[in-house]
Amino acid sequence: MSDGTAVAGPDGALRCPWALSTPDYVTYHDEEWGRPVHGDDALFERLSLEAFQSGLSWITILRRREGFRAAFAGFEIAKVATFTDADKDRLLADAGIIRNRAKIAATMANARALAEWTPGDLDDLIWSHAPAPAARPAPKTLADVPAVTPESTALSKALKKRGLRFVGPTTAYALMQACGLVDDHLQACVARSAP
């Protein structure tokens, strides 16, 4: 059992302890988590998946990500915005995703809201809430990593004000972590210094 500090992986490199429970996590941790993500559709996908993750383990979402992408038209905002009640029924019957009625409805509603925004607005809004990189020291243990920050609370409020749903402060912070707005790789983690 880890004390929350970086742990040596199968290759001997130190990583955040959560990354070592499955090979899927190692790959996600090393190649994606904390790397900057830009583009409205890409951020809509991450925002939607973080909302679906609420109350579940991230590995559950990660292992179904391709199913989500197929079910939600690659998370292209313009396409998801046109989904109908028939699409909602199709999604509720799709075993390749998490079949949560409220989360499916929120994803569809969010796409309709975002389709009204000017292209680039979602990217600009999300990234405007990124704290200065030097604003917080590198976490040494998992206990140093918050679940919510003032920035994620402000981002949540801004997204809700613009009509988005399932975007609470915890979901907003998970998005910030996943999309590189903050670097919560532990200080000794090999991915912290990765390009």
Compact overview of the structure:
With 195 residues, the chain is an all-alpha fold.
Provide the spatial order of strands within the biggest beta sheet. Answer: 1-2
Number of helical runs? 10
Mean pLDDT: 95
Number of strands: 2
Major beta sheet summary: 2 strands, antiparallel
Radius of gyration from the CA trace? 17 Å
Summarize this structure as a short list of keywords or feature phrases.
single chain, mainly alpha, 195 residues, two-stranded antiparallel ribbon
Walkthrough of the structure:
- By secondary structure, the protein is mainly alpha-helical.
- The chain is built from 10 helices and 2 strands.
- Strand 1 and strand 2 (14-15) form a beta hairpin.
- The chain is globular and about 50 Å long.
- The model has no long low-confidence stretch (mean pLDDT 95).
Topology:
Layout: E1 7-8, E2 14-15, H1 23-31, H2 40-53, H3 58-62, H4 65-71, H5 77-80, H6 85-92, H7 101-114, H8 121-127, H9 150-161, H10 169-178
